[in-house]
Amino acid sequence: MAAPSPVIETRGLTKRYRGGQLAVDGLDLSVPGGSVFGFLGPNGSGKTTTIRMLMGLIAPTSGTASVLGRPMPDASRTVLPEVGALIEGPALYGFLSGRDNLLRFDRADPTADPRTRAARVGEALDRVGLAPAAGKKARAYSLGMKQRLGLAAALLRPRRLLVLDEPTNGLDPQGMREIRALVRELAADGTTVFLSSHLLDEIEQVCTHAAVMARGRLLTQGPVAGLATGGRLAVTTPDPADAARVLKEQGVTGITVDGDRVRADAPPGTVDAADLNAALVRAGVRVRAFGVERASLEDAFVALTGEGFDVAG
Ligand SMILES: Nc1ncnc2c1ncn2[C@@H]1O[C@H](COP(=O)(O)OP(=O)(O)OP(=O)(O)O)[C@@H](O)[C@H]1O
């Protein structure tokens, strides 16, 4: 079977703002269907500009973008109804309750059946856990509740794709957890989720795939597990010299010994770490602990950009 076509695909997508600022530079992005795709980069790296082009809100200077297999911005009218978007905070009326805000959004959709409106709004409120607070005025909502209400608005109709620009920005840890849990649930139902973030741990926690941006350029993209390859092999043993010799014989590189700890480069994917452990034991090395510590996405990012990263936000 042919691989399903990507849900989002860009070719050479470029945006130069009128002032001359090159915000996005030759972006080739490919977002697989069913993924939770993290669009990662520090502030100012071009994430919002890319999202605005994907949603047909601004025109690219050059290059192309397709969403759900159709060209943007030309196909905006057919594509956007299938896309739920939360960009730069939802536009809410503070003097209306959460429920009334959703009723208003639903009424603005000409394809929404008025007879099922109340049920639809009720389901969306349930979905994001806001049913108990549905009667409260939106201005009394916490930031996290406002974000969830925005998500509820995006979920009033079935969507194939959700695009969320920094959905946890400004939230406290509890609010962040709630949004992340919701994203996981939505993805479990088969919705592709594309979310931007400047938080590495967020991408590691919720995303299956990621792209890393810096200064308008794409540094890398792919499955999150693959982006964070590398790492270290660590063996704890009362026989460190023997362990180092055996590992060397097995072709392991970067070996260092410190007391009872032998560390080395993690074996390449073709070598099973269990075989290394078995070789140590066969050679009579007494192994107290054996493990491969995978590098984090943070290590990968630092290696790619040569820059540190604001991990905690
Ligand atoms: N309307 C605009 N006119 C001119 N320059 C802009 C405009 N919008 C953004 N920029 C510039 O383009 C670059 C990329 O900005 P963008 O907002 O896309 O980045 P970002 O990764 O989304 O960052 P943030 O998370 O801070 O929004 C920045 O240097 C920014 O100053």
Automatic annotation (TrEMBL):
It comes from the Bacteria. This is ABC transporter ATP-binding protein. It comes from Streptomyces drozdowiczii. Keywords: ATP-binding, Nucleotide-binding, Transport. Coiled coil: none annotated. Belongs to the ABC transporter superfamily. Residues 8-240 form the ABC transporter domain. Signal peptide: none annotated. GO terms for molecular function: ATP binding. The lineage of its organism: Bacteria, Bacillati, Actinomycetota, Actinomycetes, Kitasatosporales. The keyword Magnesium does not apply.
